[in-house]
């Protein structure tokens, strides 16, 4: 590394001078500058270097067809990396494969080659179906694939099939496309319900390729898993047994996830053997400006400050924001100070969803060819759009999942040179946890993907679609003598659901061992992969008639009740009318000096408990605490809303809300602590904590750190904290899945409860605020004056000492409570 | 089933995102079927079904043999055997039908459990009719259970393959695809590719639908209602064609079939579902409705074959509105560039209209209103002038009369024709240029949205005329 005088960063330099000064500056120099900067260096809480990985390129797999090897040699390949070779070997051996190596490690090639080999073996008869999460990705990949085929000199074709495909082309691609690139929605609503039009594809289906399977989580992922069951059933009907080739970002439960999608065991390839330069990571925590309020400097402002040192003309930098508005603001900031960073304003570009395709292509090309020095983006550049490798990444806030984090930092790093990734933490429990525990990011993956295709609601919707496509047949299980259906997953309820649709809903007919679809309908049209979309409430501007936003069903009673203040990017509407029946709300633009905060009463009724771990008190038989998993019925009633003045947070009045309650049947994780234990903990000599506030603060903190361990949004979980639960007759904290029927999050939470609780405690311990702030338990006005300390004591008590053990005793009420007491209404 | 699961499923029944209990049709907002007539129901398997066996299993069919001389409506079934490719093909613009022979065709109509498509739609009744010497044999294949589908479709494919051609009503768009979808699903080779297929819907609509003919070709847009009232005698409601192109309309108006107690096809799915669930059902009426459909395919084929001659095989006048038929034939002649024929058909249309107008005039009480009634709709007059011009007849005065009668959105087109005739025929360049100028003015006032190419052509014509005038002046 050439040793240069570092004069850059000195204010007042003219841009030409700045450019000259920064010319030739390498990533190492940038790191040194950041570490030397007197203003910045203290806020970099953590530095980590991952040494360069130099890898011998292996030979080509022996089984790989000579013609493919020739094409690869022609493209300059001298061999394949170890993980690629192993993936290809497994695929050629007829296995289902999931590759979870990082961005830019050559995953695409690893699944393309087995497909091409199959085409060669069958002289183009074999066909495959490739699923991508976005249209843009499938169009990119189609181009790449067609180029490879051309080099092979064959007249084979790949086609993208999506909403934009003109009807005239559809027939051609149905009958002749060797590779069909599409997305889960088209497969669900277009292809599968019309599978006979695709009979040739299904009869010759050799592979199903699914890219970025880590995006298949939650309700969406569970539905897609059901769609894939339908796909396999149909392929089997036509005599094919396609193999699954999948790629994903790194996951804790990758093998399980792959197996769930493929319906059988998959070979997991997770050892990255591609060469990479040295990777340097910096974790930056903005300085605290108000320790009482726990307020840190704004992450976006800090990004600009760091940029002044970090950006330069020799390397390319990428800034990731979590919101689209962030992109626009930061792009403007950086363009303004481009001169001081030694670059031109036009070398700074924004890139996000909502830009027109042509503009996007232009920016992508300019990035690839080095003309753009700085790009500010959202997750739009997180998934595999080809922009080449860059040098420096800045993440303005943790993107919410480990997978996204690695996808983003994977955008930087070239062979033979160092790369830098800086994460700027926000005042948020998750970001603050990561600041204190950066090893979370670098050690083995911690996130579990929540997917549950056997969720009864999702399963029943998918069964409905599947029954339309092919009749269901049952057989008698030799061991149990029960009637079973074998081709739709392991749920014991498939037969029950089919019988229900036959006897109660009446749209299936059972004849001997077979259920037939007998209704004038097209069920896939009514089943949304993303879940409750049809129930969403659209919000309209009364004056222009334009739609200004959307909110989910559950949120609508607190967000768009009459009188609510609805905000979008700083503009304010006051809701005048909420047409509850038709799921529409109408607002008028106003200048308001207050916002509204709706209060709800949440009632949770336990329907069924499935699992319990219990810990007793040391010297007695009495219970200390228990964790539970089960099904609950949640009733949420919006009662009133307060008008709160901006900035001063002064309450300027309140009004009642008159809307029907929201009802939800779902899964819940429950923590119960015996009254004695809670009293002992929170009523010590020197502590006077408000039990209600503490209990509630614990719930909201757990909900907010949960996404560290289960791939979900904090908003996917609901909380109800009850000091006197009617069902449990003691303090109970419910964390429930906010999707009807639950989508597996609660099971994951139950399995990872100690990790979540531990992380919550770590957040508290490392938070520099004095009495609670938004980055931990919330401000003292909400969590109580001693809330921070009380929640800490409670968490310590729960995770230290003996672990609770599984028990068969699923009676909710503690022993010794007189029976026959009517359950009272429970208040959150 | 556990109680909690039942509750869960129940709570989902009927919520948005679920199937509507009455099927998708009601949710699309389209009008529902006509109210269900109160018809007698039956229970159990329909009568007169024979069971057959083929390589794919068993299936059932009802076979009805009628004398080919039988009258359906007011037409003999056997008249369809006179429908030859020579008479049919020009009316359908399908060369594949050049060797069509009504005596060797199969007449296809199916009943399904829905119009939406997708593999979950069952073609539960497949009817094929064909002539067997003196007999018209109707074969109605029927699914007694869904699992007979494969055998039934195998037989259907064989029967169609063995025939010389296929006749249907809207079958190219519907029946064919429903059968093809299900055949592919059962890995049965569909018989449709290359098979001559006469889909009666299209030629009959071209000849007899008011929307296709009068509204589109003659009256144009919102004007049609007013125009039609001017020319519509009260005793001839379909003078300009039928209000819709349904089979039931065509068979009634063209072949005199009056169905009694007919069950609308919209109730067919329900009838089959009722039967499957062992409830009382209306399937007997579905069988009858379907049989009537197939027999009507034969009589309508016969009727279509008589179009050019315009008499029935028994020499009685051919049913159906002559005016719309003439217009339809004229528009066919136009697409085939048979200009003389087009012009003479349009002359016949004119004569028809005048006779109709005479009829209307006798009813008119206001002599003043009568005097304002135009002789012909303007677009029709323009069409006629175009046809005669292209047939090589002198038409300048006709265009001039059209231009002088009234200024409207057609004026630019008319003036351009005048300019062309003056430029190339009379070689009167100044007059042609004047016509161009009038066209340009009319564009501004009456047709501001006319497309750019028309304007550009007009400009270059005016420029060329300007040059020619200058040249003439130089030579003079």
At CATH level 2, the architecture of the largest domain in chain B is 2-Layer Sandwich
CATH architecture of the largest domain in chain A: 3-Layer(aba) Sandwich
Distance between the termini of chain B: 104 Å
Overall CATH class of the largest domain in chain B:
Alpha Beta
Shape call of chain A: globular
Summarize the main sheet of chain A.
7 strands, mixed
The N- to C-terminal Cα distance of chain A equals: 62 Å
- Give helix % range of chain A: 25-40%
- The spatial strand order of the largest sheet of chain B comes to 1-2-7-6-5-8-9
How much strand content do the residues of chain A show? Answer: 15-25%
Strand order of the largest sheet of chain A: 1-9-16-15-12-14-13
Provide mean pLDDT of chain B, rounded.
85
CATH topology of the largest domain in chain A: Rossmann fold
Which term fits the overall shape of chain B?
Answer: elongated
Strand content of chain B: 5-15%
The number of helical runs of chain B is 19
The quaternary state of the protein chains shown equals heterodimer
Number of helical elements of chain A = 26
How many strands in all of chain B? Answer: 9
Structural class of chain B: alpha+beta
Task: Describe this entry's structure for a reader.
The complex is a heterodimer of chains A (828) and B (476). With 828 residues, chain A is α/β, with parallel strands linked by helices. Chain A folds into five domains: 15-47 and 276-435, Rossmann fold (3-Layer(aba) Sandwich); 66-269, 3-Layer(aba) Sandwich (Rossmann fold); 456-526; 533-592, no CATH class; 601-638 and 657-806, no CATH class. In chain A, the strands form eight sheets. Chain A has a seven-stranded mixed β-sheet with strand order 1-9-16-15-12-14-13, sandwiched between helices. In chain A, strand 29 and strand 30 (651-656) form a beta hairpin. In chain A, helix 16 packs across helix 24 (753-766). The radius of gyration of chain A is 29 Å and the shape is globular. The model of chain A is unreliable at 1-14 and 817-828 (pLDDT under 50). With 476 residues, chain B is of the alpha+beta class. Chain B folds into three domains: 50-209 and 244-305, Nucleotidyltransferase, domain 5, CATH 3.30.420; 211-236 and 318-359 and 376-388, no CATH class; 403-476. Helix content of chain B is 50%, strand content 11%. Chain B contains 19 helices and nine strands. Chain B has helices at 3-12, 24-27, 85-92, 149-162, 175-185, 201-208, 211-219, 224-231, 247-255, 268-276, 283-305, 322-335, 339-363, 367-372, 378-390, 396-405, 411-426, 429-446, 452-475, and strands at 50-54, 57-67, 71-72, 75-76, 105-112, 123-132, 135-142, 165-168, 197-199. In chain B, the strands form two sheets. Chain B has a seven-stranded mixed β-sheet with strand order 1-2-7-6-5-8-9, with helices on both faces. Chain B has a two-stranded antiparallel sheet with strand order 3-4. The longest helix of chain B is centred in the last third of the chain and has 25 residues, at 339-363. The relative contact order of chain B is 0.10. Chains A and B meet through helix 18, helix 19 and strand 22 of A and helix 1, helix 5 and helix 10 of B.
């Amino acid at each position: 590394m050439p040793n240069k005088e570092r004069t850059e960063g000195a204010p007042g330099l003219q841009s030409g001078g700045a450019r000259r000064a920064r010319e030739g500056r390498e990533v190492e120099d940038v790191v040194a500058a950041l570490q030397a900067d007197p203003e910045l260096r203290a806020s970099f809480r953590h530095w980590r270097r991952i040494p360069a990985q130099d890898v011998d390129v292996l030979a080509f797999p022996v089984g790989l067809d000579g013609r493919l090897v020739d094409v690869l040699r022609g493209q300059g390949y001298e061999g394949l990396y170890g993980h690629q070779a192993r993936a290809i070997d497994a695929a050629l051996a007829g296995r289902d494969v999931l590759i979870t190596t990082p961005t830019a490690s050559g995953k695409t090639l690893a699944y393309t080659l087995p497909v091409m080999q199959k085409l060669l073996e069958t002289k183009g008869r074999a066909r495959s179906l490739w699923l991508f999460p976005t249209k843009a990705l499938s169009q990119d990949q189609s181009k790449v694939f067609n180029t490879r085929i051309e080099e092979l000199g064959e007249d084979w074709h790949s086609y993208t099939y999506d909403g934009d495909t003109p009807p005239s082309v559809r027939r051609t691609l149905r009958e002749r496309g060797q590779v069909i690139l599409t997305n889960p929605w088209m497969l669900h609503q277009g292809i599968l319900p019309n599978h006979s039009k695709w009979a040739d594809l299904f009869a010759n289906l050799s592979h199903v390729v699914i890219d970025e399977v880590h995006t298949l989580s939650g309700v969406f992922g569970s539905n897609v898993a059901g769609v894939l069951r339908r796909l396999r059933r149909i392929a089997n009907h036509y005599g094919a047994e396609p193999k699954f080739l999948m790629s994903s970002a790194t996951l804790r439960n990758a093998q399980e996830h792959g197996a769930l999608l493929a319906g059988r065991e998959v070979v997991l390839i997770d050892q990255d053997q591609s060469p990479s330069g040295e990777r340097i990571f910096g974790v930056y925590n903005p300085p605290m400006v108000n320790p009482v309020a726990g307020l840190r400097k704004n992450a976006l402002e800090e990004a600009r400050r760091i940029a002044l040192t970090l950006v330069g003309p020799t390397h390319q930098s990428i800034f990731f924001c979590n919101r689209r508005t962030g992109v626009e603001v930061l792009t403007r900031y950086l363009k303004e100070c481009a001169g001081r960073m030694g670059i031109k304003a036009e070398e700074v570009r924004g890139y996000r969803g909502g830009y027109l395709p042509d503009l996007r292509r232009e920016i992508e090309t300019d990035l690839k060819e080095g003309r753009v020095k700085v790009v500010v983006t959202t997750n739009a550049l997180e998934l595999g759009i080809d922009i080449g490798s860059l040098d420096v990444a800045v993440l303005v806030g943790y993107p919410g999942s480990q997978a996204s984090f690695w996808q983003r930092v994977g955008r930087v790093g070239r062979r033979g040179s160092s790369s830098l990734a800086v994460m700027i933490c926000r005042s948020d429990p998750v970001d603050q946890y990561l600041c204190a525990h950066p090893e979370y990011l670098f050690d083995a993956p911690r996130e579990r993907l929540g997917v549950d295709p056997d969720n009864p609601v999702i399963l029943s919707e998918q069964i409905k679609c599947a029954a339309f496509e092919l009749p269901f047949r049952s057989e008698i299980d030799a061991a149990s003598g029960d009637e079973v259906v074998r081709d739709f997953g392991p749920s014991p309820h498939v037969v029950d659901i089919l019988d229900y649709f036959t006897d109660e809903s009446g749209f299936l007919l059972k004849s001997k061992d077979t259920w037939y679809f007998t209704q004038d309908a097209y069920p896939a049209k009514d089943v949304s992969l993303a879940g409750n979309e049809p129930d969403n409430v659209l919000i309209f501007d009364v004056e222009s008639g334009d739609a200004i936003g959307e909110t989910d069903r559950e949120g609508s009673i607190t967000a768009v009740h009459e009188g609510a203040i609805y905000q979008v990017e700083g503009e304010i509407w006051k809701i005048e009318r909420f047409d509850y029946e038709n799921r529409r709300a109408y607002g008028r633009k106003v200048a308001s000096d207050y916002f509204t905060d709706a209060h709800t009463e949440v009632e949770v009724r336990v329907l069924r408990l499935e699992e319990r771990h219990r810990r007793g008190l040391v010297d007695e038989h009495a219970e200390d605490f228990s964790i539970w998993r089960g099904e609950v019925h949640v009733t949420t009633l919006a009662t009133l809303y307060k008008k709160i003045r901006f900035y001063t947070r002064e309450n300027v009045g309140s009004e009642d809300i008159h809307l029907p309650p929201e009802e939800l049947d779902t899964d819940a994780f429950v923590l119960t602590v015996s009254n004695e234990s809670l009293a002992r903990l929170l009523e010590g000599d020197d502590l006077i904590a408000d039990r209600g506030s503490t209990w509630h603060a614990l719930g909201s903190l757990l909900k907010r750190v949960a996404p560290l361990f289960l791939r979900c949004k904090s908003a996917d979980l609901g909380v109800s904290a009850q000091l006197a639960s009617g069902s449990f007759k003691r303090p109970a904290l419910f964390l429930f899945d906010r999707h009807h029927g639950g989508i597996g999050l609660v099971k994951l939470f139950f399995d990872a409860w100690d990790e979540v609780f531990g992380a919550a405690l770590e957040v508290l311990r490392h938070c520099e605020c004095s009495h609670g702030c938004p980055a931990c338990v919330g401000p003292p006005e909400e969590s109580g004056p001693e809330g921070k300390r009380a929640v800490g004591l409670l968490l310590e008590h729960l995770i230290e000492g003996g672990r609770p053990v599984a028990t068969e005793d699923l009676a909710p009420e503690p022993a010794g409570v007189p029976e026959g007491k009517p359950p009272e209404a429970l208040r959150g | 089933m556990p109680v909690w699961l039942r509750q869960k499923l129940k709570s989902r029944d009927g919520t948005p995102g679920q199937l509507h209990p009455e099927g998708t049709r009601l949710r699309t907002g389209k009008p529902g079927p006509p109210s269900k007539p109160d018809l007698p129901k039956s229970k159990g398997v329909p009568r007169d079904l024979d069971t057959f066996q083929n390589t794919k299993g068993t299936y059932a069919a009802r076979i009805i043999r009628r004398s080919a001389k039988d009258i359906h409506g007011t037409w003999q079934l056997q008249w369809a055997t006179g429908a030859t490719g020579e008479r049919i093909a020009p009316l359908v613009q399908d060369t594949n039908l050049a060797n069509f022979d009504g005596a060797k065709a199969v007449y296809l109509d199916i009943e399904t459990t829905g119009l939406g498509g997708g593999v979950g739609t069952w073609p539960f009744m497949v009817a094929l009719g064909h002539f067997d010497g003196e007999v018209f044999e109707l074969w109605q294949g029927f699914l007694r259970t869904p699992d007979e589908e494969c055998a039934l479709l195998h037989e259907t494919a064989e029967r169609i393959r063995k025939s010389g051609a296929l006749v249907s009503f809207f079958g190219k768009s519907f029946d064919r695809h429903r059968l093809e979808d299900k055949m592919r699903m059962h890995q049965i080779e569909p018989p449709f590719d290359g098979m001559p297929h006469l889909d009666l819907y299209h030629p009959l609509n071209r000849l007899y639908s008011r929307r296709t003919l009068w509204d589109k070709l003659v009256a144009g847009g919102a004007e049609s209602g007013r125009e039609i009232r001017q020319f519509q005698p009260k005793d001839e409601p379909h003078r300009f064609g039928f209000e819709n192109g349904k089979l039931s309309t065509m068979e009634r108006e063209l072949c005199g079939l009056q169905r009694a107690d007919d069950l609308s096809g919209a109730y067919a799915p329900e009838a089959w579902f009722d039967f499957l669930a062992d409830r009382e059902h209306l399937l007997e009426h579905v069988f009858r409705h379907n049989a009537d459909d197939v027999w009507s395919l034969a009589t309508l084929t016969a009727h279509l074959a008589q179009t050019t001659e315009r008499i029935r095989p028994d020499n009685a006048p051919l049913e159906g509105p002559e005016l719309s038929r003439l217009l339809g034939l004229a528009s066919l002649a136009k697409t085939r560039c048979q200009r003389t024929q087009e012009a003479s058909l349009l002359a016949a249309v004119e004569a028809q209209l005048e006779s109709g107008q005479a009829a209307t005039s006798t009813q008119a009480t206001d002599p003043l209103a009568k005097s304002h009634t135009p002789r012909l709709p303007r677009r029709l007059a323009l069409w006629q002038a175009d046809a005669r011009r292209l047939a090589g007849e002198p038409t300048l005065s006709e265009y001039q009369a059209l231009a002088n009668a009234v200024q409207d959105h057609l004026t630019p087109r008319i003036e351009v024709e005048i300019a062309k005739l003056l430029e190339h025929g009379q070689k009167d360049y100044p007059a042609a240029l004047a016509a161009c100028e009038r066209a340009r003015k009319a564009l501004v006032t009456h047709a501001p949205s006319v497309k750019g190419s028309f304007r550009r052509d007009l400009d270059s014509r005016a420029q060329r005329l300007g040059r020619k005038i200058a040249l003439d002046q130089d030579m003079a």
